[in-house]
């Protein structure tokens, strides 16, 4: 089976700081992989490399067997055109820490936007799909509300629906609950739990250890740009083998 | 914490505040002073016959004035159109990752903001002195079309080139400011959904930037209304020139200035109203929602 995500030897620097120092990671289709680690460990950067929001300096990133951002012909790498990168991103949904909803559009318009603009879906079809997706995240009643009129939890659920509207095969979550008031975290995690149950492949950067333990098929602990430890949640979270993992978990649990 | 009766808190009786409001004697003094000044103004405007209100009435709708008004309108609309379209293009070029493209835009802005508009108007008008013929062809190669510069660049065309190309430089900076005001996360979210850079610009970034772009653009348009009077230096005419031509003949300077001022005020008022509509259009999701929504979520969570 082709892995959904296959990162090998990923390096990434911002100026002189090397943020990723040789990452190898494999995520199988249908797998929920949670990335944990202290801030500045490079987990968000790794996630952003998966859909080429960040350009990698070394290594290969493959999604569903296809090289991301480049094309390999005759043993030589060719950079992809902007439109080709955009095409690759259609299949990869992303949810941001700060939601990044389009503030000048209603919830329904946010969900309809990408199918309309990118795929040229008809207004009626896009509207129907948006209604179904908003129902799925429990927000049918707020379809005509602007993001500024929604709570953080509601905004993040709209953002998930917006990403799902492109029918992605992979979903990336970049700390989806970190900007939320504590009592709003649950509603977003519930939606993500539902997605995982439906078999979506998910790569989740998170600080929610409970979610990682309960929903994750695998947990990756990153520190200082490398993967320190990875495995089943009960192993990594309950019986960490590395001192760095242990000291991190003792601080967050 | 609310009980069904609607009373809140400890159950003690609610003590309505009945305080004496702060007095503002200063405001009354100001009102009195302003009232006297206004009365004086009205008095002098009505009694001083050198305002020549009969002359004002005589020329307000006269053919030369209306012709000038028409030219002012046409020049303003067309040069603002050139300015806005050119400004958006320059602003997008300025943001380009290609240093040659962004450098070219920066140079254009530097040149056109750095030289006087009057000089630019004169330059376009006397372009024929520099290039008697304009031709389209391959450099050092054959020419395909060739025209007499004075035929192509009429006075009117020189006015549009001067006003429009100059305005584009200023609009470029206004548009760039607007683009910069939109959070980077918006373009990223659009990109993550599979939109190309130009789709993201058109659908996501520019509509949000408009909120910041519209007010200064209104300013520019109102300013352009009056800047068009500079075209007199190359012999063209608009509202103010028409008024002055008349007063040069009948020596009724003040009444004709009032005629011109009246029409400028009418146009400015119309533009101000129009700007309000445009601002409301692009304020969608922003204007009434922000403070209210904060209160709503607060109330919902506590």
UniProtKB/TrEMBL annotation, chain A:
One of its GO terms (molecular function) is ATP hydrolysis activity. It is a peripheral membrane protein. Keywords: Amino-acid transport, ATP-binding, Cell membrane, Membrane, Nucleotide-binding, Transport. Residues 5-249 form the ABC transporter domain. SUPFAM superfamilies: P-loop containing nucleoside triphosphate hydrolases (SSF52540). Its EC number is 7.4.2.1. It holds the Pfam family ABC_tran. InterPro entries: AAA+_ATPase (IPR003593), ABC_ATPase_HisP-typ (IPR030679), ABC_transporter-like_ATP-bd (IPR003439), ABC_transporter-like_CS (IPR017871), MetN_ABC_transporter-like (IPR050086), P-loop_NTPase (IPR027417). Signal peptide: none annotated. It is found in: Cell membrane. One of its GO terms (cellular component) is plasma membrane. Its main location: membrane. It catalyses: a polar amino acid(out) + ATP + H2O = a polar amino acid(in) + ADP + phosphate + H(+). Belongs to the ABC transporter superfamily. This is ABC-type polar-amino-acid transporter. It comes from Pseudonocardia sulfidoxydans NBRC 16205.
Automatic annotation (TrEMBL), chain B:
Coiled coil: none annotated. One of its GO terms (molecular function) is transmembrane transporter activity. GO terms for cellular component: ATP-binding cassette (ABC) transporter complex. It holds the Pfam family BPD_transp_1. PROSITE patterns: ABC_TM1. Its main location: membrane. It comes from the Bacteria. GO terms for biological process: amino acid transport. It is a multi-pass membrane protein. The chain crosses the membrane at residues 28-46, 73-93, 105-131, 151-170, 253-274. It is found in: Cell membrane. Residues 69-275 form the ABC transmembrane type-1 domain. PANTHER family: L-CYSTINE TRANSPORT SYSTEM PERMEASE PROTEIN TCYL (PTHR30614:SF0), MEMBRANE COMPONENT OF AMINO ACID ABC TRANSPORTER (PTHR30614). Belongs to the binding-protein-dependent transport system permease family. This is Polar amino acid ABC transporter permease.
